[in-house]
Amino acid sequence: MKLLIVYGTTEGHTRKISEFLKEEAEKSGHKVEMFDATLSPPSPRGYHTAIIAGSIHAGNYQTSIQHYAREYHEILNNMKSAFLSVSLVAASQDEESWKELKEHTNTFLSLTGWTPDHIEQVAGALLYTKYDFFKRFIMRLISKRSGGDIDTTRDYEYTDWDQVKGILKKLEEM
């Protein structure tokens, strides 16, 4: 399988997840090319499968992946593709938050015209040490309100790496 991974990231965790996917796919013998969506990635034409990964912040995914998916939605819709949505909500059990997350994902897909074969909601990371003062303060308040981690001197990674590996298996089985 010739796999294309295009990602958008804010603090770097979605890039880390994309790099992990690339390494796992290469271990399975797949040819993989990975691109940051802000750096003019190539068309998905010529690839067997595409994964677009983005993280959600304040209800929106990175504009770079939105532009990419919109520009190439016709090609993406005619090939095997997956959307990997990274968020802190995916680590929670709060039904209302999950409902909002799915609405944001559906809005993103509706705006782009892309209909991926698979959508995976993946838990991200709370990267206090990478945030500026204001964002660290806001994220701590949100985390405290939801019963989450509030020690701002360290970072918290909630990603289930076995779940991420499973995305490749799902795509291989399609």
List the secondary-structure elements in sequence, H or E.
Answer: EHEEEHEHEEHEH
| Fraction of residues in β-strands | 15-25%
- How many β-strand runs? 8
Radius of gyration: 16 Å
Alpha plus pi helix count = 5
What is the CATH homologous superfamily assignment of the largest domain? Flavodoxin domain
| Global geometry | globular
CATH class of the largest domain: Alpha Beta
Helix content: 40-55%
What would CATH call the architecture of the largest domain? 3-Layer(aba) Sandwich
Major sheet details: 6 strands, mixed
At the fold tier of CATH, the topology name of the largest domain is Rossmann fold
Q: What is the SS-derived class?
A: alpha/beta
Q: Overall mean pLDDT score?
A: 93
| Gap from first CA to last CA | 12 Å
Number of domains: 2
Low-confidence stretches: none
Give your account of this protein's structure.
This protein is of the alpha/beta class. The protein folds into two domains: 2-124 and 159-173, Rossmann fold; 126-157, no CATH class. Helix content is 43%, strand content 24%. It has five helices and eight strands. Strands 1, 2, 3, 4, 5 and 6 form a six-stranded mixed beta sheet that branches. It has a two-stranded antiparallel sheet with strand order 7-8. Strand 1 (2-7), helix 1 and strand 2 (31-36) form a beta-alpha-beta unit. Helix 1 crosses helix 5 (161-173) and helix 2 crosses helix 3. The protein is globular and about 45 Å long. The chain starts with a strand and ends with a helix. The mean pLDDT is 93.
